UniProtKB/TrEMBL annotation:
Keywords, alphabetical: Amino-acid transport, ATP-binding, Nucleotide-binding, Transport
ATP-binding as UniProt keyword: yes
Protein name (record): Probable branched-chain amino acid transport ATP-binding protein LivG
Lineage, broadest ranks: Archaea, Methanobacteriati, Methanobacteriota, Stenosarchaea group, Halobacteria
Keyword Nucleotide-binding annotated: yes
Primary role: Probable component of a branched-chain amino-acid transport system.
InterPro entries found in the cross-reference section: AAA+_ATPase, ABC_AA/LPS_Transport, ABC_transporter-like_ATP-bd, ABC_transporter-like_CS, BCA_ABC_TP_C, P-loop_NTPase
One Pfam family matching this protein: BCA_ABC_TP_C
Database matches in SUPFAM superfamilies: P-loop containing nucleoside triphosphate hydrolases
Example GO BP: amino acid transport
Gene3D superfamilies: P-loop containing nucleotide triphosphate hydrolases (3.40.50.300)
PANTHER family the record matches: CONSERVED COMPONENT OF ABC TRANSPORTER FOR NATURAL AMINO ACIDS (PTHR45772:SF9), CONSERVED COMPONENT OF ABC TRANSPORTER FOR NATURAL AMINO ACIDS-RELATED (PTHR45772)
Domain ABC transporter: 17-266
CDD domains, per database record: ABC_Mj1267_LivG_branched
Native organism: Haloplanus litoreus
Length: 268
């Protein structure tokens, strides 16, 4: 993608995402217990752990889907703890979901056109007054070009006129990632993007993620498949029972006896 290949965001920090002491309880159950970690800019970082480790809840706390009981989330030096999801997304911290959330009664193209921020046509007076109508049309033309470029990048341009509800599970994952990219994110949080995806499509998704990472995007990837994470991420964070069990390079994590114990279901 030509536009993404030369990203010129001002680097507020080399560590755009910092999570400090996050806690969340549901009744008497502690889902996240003091989670603390950082994500470096321009990297693909993996967040793994057995089922019920607290990975998705941590994602929900970071992105405003849930409010933490304690702890902070800092994004590009700004405390975003407790902000609403759309305000967090507007700042450039965008997520996808384990189950894709496309608008089923709209076409793929229509789903994509809704994603970019700051569209002039969203305000009625700008689309009606003759003085501003031309600028609305000009922007929509530019957005349409971006949409087609992104569809082509993800190899789903042939599905542009198809209703999103008719797509396969893998195609919906591609659509969701493509739509997220159109928001011009700084950091993308991917919640099990390979769940329910066949091996061929999984390879395509991984190729797209690596290419985007090479272009300057930052990824935090939640995944339960340890081999996939170890083979694709430079830094790995392991959760167990709501806590950060360990983190480091894939080699360091593989050599950690506590990680092996956690995945085998023993006591840590």
């Amino acid at each position: 993608m030509s536009e993404a290949s030369e990203r010129s965001r001002p680097d507020v920090t080399d560590t755009p995402l910092r999570v400090q002491g996050l806690e969340k309880q549901f009744g008497g159950i502690t889902a996240v217990d003091g989670a603390t970690f950082e994500v470096e800019r321009g990297t693909l970082t993996g967040l793994i752990g057995p089922n019920g480790a607290g990975k998705s809840t941590t994602f929900n706390l970071i992105t405003g889907m849930l409010t933490p009981d304690a702890g902070t989330v800092t994004f590009d030096g700004e405390d975003i703890t407790g902000l609403t999801p759309h305000r967090i997304a507007d700042r450039g911290l965008v997520r996808t979901f384990q189950i894709a959330r496309e608008l089923k009664e709209m076409t793929v193209l229509e789903n994509m056109m809704l994603a970019p921020k700051g569209q002039r046509g969203e305000r009625l007076w700008r689309s009606v007054l003759p003085v501003t109508r031309a600028s609305v049309v000009e922007q929509e033309t530019e957005l349409l070009d971006r949409v087609w470029e992104t569809l082509e990048f993800f190899d789903i341009e042939h599905l542009a006129e198809e209703y999103a509800g008719n797509l396969s599970g893998g195609q919906r994952k591609l659509l969701e990632m493509a739509r997220a990219l159109l928001t011009d994110p700084d950091v993308l949080l991917l919640d099990e993007p390979f769940a329910g995806v066949n091996p061929t499509l999984e390879r395509r998704l991984l190729e797209h993620i690596h290419e985007l990472r090479d272009q300057g995007y930052t990824f935090l990837l939640v995944e339960h498949d340890m081999d996939l994470i170890m083979n694709n991420c430079r830094h790995v964070i392991v959760m167990h029972q709501g806590r950060i069990l360990t983190e480091g390079t894939p080699a360091e994590v593989k050599a950690n006896e506590d990680v092996v114990e956690a995945y085998l279901g023993g006591d840590v």
